[in-house]
Amino acid sequence: MDMSRRWRIERSRDHYHKMAKSSGFRSRAAFKLIEIIKRFGVIKEGQVVLDIGAYPGGWLQVASRVTGPKGLVIGVDIRPIKELGKPNVKTIVGDVCDEDLHEELAEMLPGKVDVILSDASPKLTGVWTTDMARHEHIVRCVIKLANKLLRRGGVAVIKAFQGSELDDILPILRQQFEVVRLFKPKASRQRSREIYLICMGFRGYWQGESEYKLGDAK
Ligand SMILES: C[S@@+](CC[C@H](N)C(=O)[O-])C[C@H]1O[C@@H](n2cnc3c(N)ncnc32)[C@H](O)[C@@H]1O
Q1: How many Å apart are CA 67 and CA 44, to the nearest integer?
Q2: CA geometry: angle at 20 spanning 16 and 25, to 5°?
Q3: What does DSSP say about strands 194-202 and 177-183: parallel, antiparallel, or unpaired?
Q4: How many angstroms from the chain centroid is the CA of residue 49?
Q5: Higher-confidence residue: 190 or 102?
Q6: Burial class (CB within 10 angstroms; exposed 0-12, middle 13-18, buried 19+) of 85
Q7: How many whole angstroms from 86 Cα to the centroid of ligand 1?
Q8: Residue nearest atom 24 of ligand 1, based on CA coordinates
Q9: Enzyme catalytic residues
Q10: What is the pLDDT of residue 18?
Q11: H or E segment to which residue 150 belongs
Protein backbone atom coordinates (compact mmCIF):
# COMPACT_ATOMS: atom_id res chain seq x y z
CA MET A 1 0.00 0.00 0.00
CA ASP A 2 1.36 3.43 -0.89
CA MET A 3 2.20 5.86 1.92
CA SER A 4 -0.39 8.51 1.09
CA ARG A 5 -3.21 5.95 1.20
CA ARG A 6 -1.95 4.57 4.50
CA TRP A 7 -1.75 8.10 5.83
CA ARG A 8 -5.36 8.83 4.81
CA ILE A 9 -6.53 5.64 6.49
CA GLU A 10 -4.61 6.38 9.69
CA ARG A 11 -5.97 9.91 9.76
CA SER A 12 -9.51 8.66 9.43
CA ARG A 13 -8.91 6.16 12.21
CA ASP A 14 -7.68 8.97 14.44
CA HIS A 15 -10.65 11.07 13.47
CA TYR A 16 -13.16 8.51 14.80
CA HIS A 17 -10.97 7.72 17.76
CA LYS A 18 -10.83 11.39 18.73
CA MET A 19 -14.54 11.83 18.08
CA ALA A 20 -15.28 8.89 20.38
CA LYS A 21 -13.15 10.43 23.12
CA SER A 22 -14.65 13.91 22.79
CA SER A 23 -18.25 12.62 22.67
CA GLY A 24 -17.80 10.30 25.63
CA PHE A 25 -18.25 7.05 23.68
CA ARG A 26 -16.28 4.08 24.92
CA SER A 27 -15.31 2.97 21.43
CA ARG A 28 -15.01 4.31 17.91
CA ALA A 29 -17.33 1.41 17.00
CA ALA A 30 -20.19 3.50 18.42
CA PHE A 31 -20.13 5.53 15.20
CA LYS A 32 -20.70 2.42 13.11
CA LEU A 33 -23.92 1.69 14.96
CA ILE A 34 -25.00 5.32 14.69
CA GLU A 35 -24.57 5.11 10.91
CA ILE A 36 -26.48 1.82 10.78
CA ILE A 37 -29.35 3.25 12.82
CA LYS A 38 -29.50 6.43 10.70
CA ARG A 39 -29.54 4.45 7.48
CA PHE A 40 -31.81 1.53 8.41
CA GLY A 41 -33.71 2.64 11.54
CA VAL A 42 -32.95 -0.70 13.16
CA ILE A 43 -33.51 0.34 16.79
CA LYS A 44 -36.53 2.24 18.10
CA GLU A 45 -37.61 3.82 21.34
CA GLY A 46 -38.89 1.38 23.96
CA GLN A 47 -37.39 -1.72 22.34
CA VAL A 48 -35.52 -4.61 23.92
CA VAL A 49 -32.02 -5.01 22.46
CA LEU A 50 -29.45 -7.73 23.00
CA ASP A 51 -25.86 -6.72 22.19
CA ILE A 52 -23.40 -9.61 21.73
CA GLY A 53 -19.68 -8.82 22.01
CA ALA A 54 -20.54 -5.57 23.73
CA TYR A 55 -17.26 -4.70 25.53
CA PRO A 56 -16.21 -1.93 26.14
CA GLY A 57 -19.75 -0.61 25.62
CA GLY A 58 -19.88 1.90 22.73
CA TRP A 59 -22.85 0.16 21.09
CA LEU A 60 -24.54 -0.15 24.49
CA GLN A 61 -24.29 3.63 24.94
CA VAL A 62 -25.85 4.26 21.53
CA ALA A 63 -28.60 1.63 21.95
CA SER A 64 -29.39 2.93 25.44
CA ARG A 65 -29.93 6.46 24.10
CA VAL A 66 -32.18 5.31 21.26
CA THR A 67 -34.33 2.90 23.28
CA GLY A 68 -34.68 5.38 26.16
CA PRO A 69 -36.10 4.80 29.64
CA LYS A 70 -38.86 2.45 28.44
CA GLY A 71 -36.38 0.25 26.59
CA LEU A 72 -33.95 -2.39 27.79
CA VAL A 73 -30.47 -3.14 26.48
CA ILE A 74 -28.55 -6.23 27.54
CA GLY A 75 -24.85 -6.45 26.75
CA VAL A 76 -22.99 -9.76 26.65
CA ASP A 77 -19.24 -10.24 26.41
CA ILE A 78 -16.58 -12.68 27.57
CA ARG A 79 -14.95 -9.63 29.16
CA PRO A 80 -16.66 -7.83 32.03
CA ILE A 81 -18.12 -4.47 30.99
CA LYS A 82 -17.59 -1.55 33.34
CA GLU A 83 -20.87 -0.21 34.75
CA LEU A 84 -22.41 2.31 32.35
CA GLY A 85 -24.63 3.98 34.95
CA LYS A 86 -27.67 3.76 32.64
CA PRO A 87 -30.81 2.34 34.24
CA ASN A 88 -31.92 0.70 30.97
CA VAL A 89 -28.66 -1.23 30.46
CA LYS A 90 -27.71 -4.57 32.00
CA THR A 91 -24.55 -6.49 31.27
CA ILE A 92 -23.61 -10.10 31.63
CA VAL A 93 -20.31 -11.94 31.24
CA GLY A 94 -20.57 -14.95 28.97
CA ASP A 95 -19.65 -16.68 25.74
CA VAL A 96 -22.32 -16.52 23.03
CA CYS A 97 -21.46 -20.12 22.11
CA ASP A 98 -22.29 -21.37 25.61
CA GLU A 99 -25.82 -22.82 25.65
CA ASP A 100 -26.09 -22.15 29.40
CA LEU A 101 -25.77 -18.45 28.61
CA HIS A 102 -28.69 -18.78 26.19
CA GLU A 103 -30.79 -20.19 29.03
CA GLU A 104 -29.64 -17.47 31.42
CA LEU A 105 -30.57 -14.76 28.93
CA ALA A 106 -33.98 -16.32 28.29
CA GLU A 107 -34.63 -16.21 32.04
CA MET A 108 -33.57 -12.59 32.53
CA LEU A 109 -35.48 -11.24 29.52
CA PRO A 110 -39.08 -10.03 29.75
CA GLY A 111 -39.91 -11.98 26.54
CA LYS A 112 -38.49 -12.17 23.03
CA VAL A 113 -36.15 -9.38 21.96
CA ASP A 114 -36.78 -6.85 19.19
CA VAL A 115 -33.16 -6.52 18.07
CA ILE A 116 -29.99 -8.60 18.29
CA LEU A 117 -26.71 -6.82 17.64
CA SER A 118 -23.41 -8.61 17.20
CA ASP A 119 -20.10 -6.83 16.80
CA ALA A 120 -18.35 -9.85 18.33
CA SER A 121 -14.85 -10.71 17.09
CA PRO A 122 -12.38 -13.23 18.47
CA LYS A 123 -8.89 -12.15 19.44
CA LEU A 124 -7.08 -12.10 16.11
CA THR A 125 -4.08 -14.35 15.55
CA GLY A 126 -3.12 -12.75 12.23
CA VAL A 127 -3.60 -16.10 10.47
CA TRP A 128 -6.45 -15.26 8.16
CA THR A 129 -7.99 -18.75 7.84
CA THR A 130 -7.89 -19.32 11.62
CA ASP A 131 -9.39 -15.91 12.37
CA MET A 132 -12.12 -16.41 9.77
CA ALA A 133 -13.02 -19.87 11.07
CA ARG A 134 -13.28 -18.53 14.63
CA HIS A 135 -15.37 -15.58 13.57
CA GLU A 136 -17.72 -17.72 11.51
CA HIS A 137 -18.21 -19.98 14.51
CA ILE A 138 -19.23 -16.98 16.62
CA VAL A 139 -21.65 -15.77 13.94
CA ARG A 140 -23.25 -19.22 13.81
CA CYS A 141 -23.69 -19.07 17.60
CA VAL A 142 -25.33 -15.64 17.27
CA ILE A 143 -27.72 -17.05 14.67
CA LYS A 144 -28.54 -19.95 16.98
CA LEU A 145 -29.23 -17.53 19.81
CA ALA A 146 -31.40 -15.39 17.52
CA ASN A 147 -33.47 -18.46 16.75
CA LYS A 148 -34.21 -18.84 20.43
CA LEU A 149 -34.68 -15.24 21.52
CA LEU A 150 -35.57 -12.96 18.59
CA ARG A 151 -39.22 -12.12 18.05
CA ARG A 152 -40.90 -12.72 14.71
CA GLY A 153 -40.36 -9.61 12.58
CA GLY A 154 -37.28 -8.70 14.64
CA VAL A 155 -33.96 -7.34 13.44
CA ALA A 156 -30.38 -8.61 13.66
CA VAL A 157 -27.25 -6.60 12.89
CA ILE A 158 -24.28 -8.93 12.57
CA LYS A 159 -20.65 -8.22 11.83
CA ALA A 160 -19.22 -10.56 9.21
CA PHE A 161 -16.06 -10.76 7.15
CA GLN A 162 -16.08 -10.74 3.38
CA GLY A 163 -14.83 -14.01 1.93
CA SER A 164 -15.83 -17.59 2.67
CA GLU A 165 -17.53 -16.58 5.93
CA LEU A 166 -19.93 -14.26 4.14
CA ASP A 167 -20.54 -16.89 1.44
CA ASP A 168 -21.48 -19.43 4.13
CA ILE A 169 -23.56 -17.17 6.36
CA LEU A 170 -25.51 -15.10 3.86
CA PRO A 171 -27.70 -17.93 2.48
CA ILE A 172 -28.66 -18.96 6.02
CA LEU A 173 -29.67 -15.43 6.96
CA ARG A 174 -31.54 -14.93 3.70
CA GLN A 175 -33.69 -17.93 4.61
CA GLN A 176 -34.42 -16.59 8.05
CA PHE A 177 -35.02 -12.92 7.35
CA GLU A 178 -37.19 -11.23 4.77
CA VAL A 179 -34.49 -8.70 3.88
CA VAL A 180 -30.70 -8.87 4.36
CA ARG A 181 -28.63 -5.85 3.37
CA LEU A 182 -24.84 -5.54 3.40
CA PHE A 183 -23.44 -2.29 4.78
CA LYS A 184 -19.92 -0.94 5.24
CA PRO A 185 -20.07 2.06 7.60
CA LYS A 186 -17.73 4.97 6.94
CA ALA A 187 -16.43 4.50 10.49
CA SER A 188 -15.26 0.99 9.56
CA ARG A 189 -11.62 0.92 8.52
CA GLN A 190 -11.52 0.79 4.76
CA ARG A 191 -8.75 -1.81 4.70
CA SER A 192 -10.77 -4.13 6.93
CA ARG A 193 -12.92 -6.82 5.32
CA GLU A 194 -15.59 -6.36 7.95
CA ILE A 195 -19.09 -5.73 6.78
CA TYR A 196 -22.39 -5.52 8.65
CA LEU A 197 -25.34 -7.69 7.75
CA ILE A 198 -28.56 -5.80 8.37
CA CYS A 199 -31.19 -8.50 8.70
CA MET A 200 -34.80 -7.34 8.90
CA GLY A 201 -38.07 -9.20 9.31
CA PHE A 202 -37.13 -12.37 11.19
CA ARG A 203 -39.33 -15.17 9.93
CA GLY A 204 -39.24 -17.04 13.24
CA TYR A 205 -37.92 -20.28 11.89
CA TRP A 206 -34.98 -21.77 10.05
CA GLN A 207 -36.10 -23.78 7.04
CA GLY A 208 -32.78 -25.56 6.67
CA GLU A 209 -32.40 -27.28 10.03
CA SER A 210 -35.40 -28.51 11.96
CA GLU A 211 -33.65 -28.21 15.35
CA TYR A 212 -33.86 -24.43 14.98
CA LYS A 213 -37.56 -24.28 14.08
CA LEU A 214 -39.42 -22.12 16.52
CA GLY A 215 -43.09 -22.84 16.19
CA ASP A 216 -43.82 -20.65 19.19
CA ALA A 217 -41.86 -17.58 17.99
CA LYS A 218 -43.90 -14.43 18.46
C1 LIG B 1 -15.02 -5.16 18.38
S2 LIG B 1 -15.32 -5.59 20.04
C3 LIG B 1 -16.95 -4.92 20.28
C4 LIG B 1 -17.02 -3.43 20.44
C5 LIG B 1 -18.36 -2.95 20.90
N6 LIG B 1 -19.36 -3.13 19.85
C7 LIG B 1 -18.35 -1.51 21.30
O8 LIG B 1 -19.01 -0.69 20.65
O9 LIG B 1 -17.71 -1.16 22.28
C10 LIG B 1 -15.60 -7.31 19.93
C11 LIG B 1 -15.93 -7.98 21.25
O12 LIG B 1 -16.37 -9.32 20.99
C13 LIG B 1 -16.11 -10.05 22.17
N14 LIG B 1 -16.24 -11.50 21.94
C15 LIG B 1 -15.40 -12.29 21.23
N16 LIG B 1 -15.83 -13.58 21.26
C17 LIG B 1 -16.96 -13.59 22.00
C18 LIG B 1 -17.86 -14.63 22.40
N19 LIG B 1 -17.67 -15.90 22.02
N20 LIG B 1 -18.95 -14.31 23.15
C21 LIG B 1 -19.13 -13.02 23.55
N22 LIG B 1 -18.31 -11.99 23.20
C23 LIG B 1 -17.24 -12.27 22.44
C24 LIG B 1 -14.69 -9.60 22.53
O25 LIG B 1 -14.39 -9.89 23.87
C26 LIG B 1 -14.74 -8.12 22.20
O27 LIG B 1 -14.96 -7.36 23.36
Answers
A1: 6
A2: 145
A3: antiparallel
A4: 10
A5: 102
A6: exposed
A7: 20
A8: 53
A9: 159
A10: 78
A11: strand 150-161
Task: Decide: 54 in ligand 1 pocket, CB within 6 A.
Answer: yes
Q: Tell me if residue 93 falls in helix, strand or coil.
A: strand
Position with higher pLDDT, 59 vs 211: 59
How many Å lie between the centroid of ligand 1 and the Cα of residue 208? 28
Residue 53 in contact with ligand 1 by CB distance below 6 A: yes
Nearest residue (by CA) to ligand 1, atom 20, is 95
Q: Ligand 1 centroid vs 95 CA: distance in angstroms?
A: 10
Select from 40, 78, 46 the least CA-distant residue to 158. Answer: 40
31 lines ligand 1 (CB under 6 A): no
- Going along the chain from its start, the domains and CATH numbers come out as 3-212 (3.40.50.150)
Mean of pLDDT values over 28-42: 97
For residue range 52-65, list pLDDT tens digits in order. Answer: 999 999 999 999 99
For residue 175, is pLDDT > 70? Answer: yes
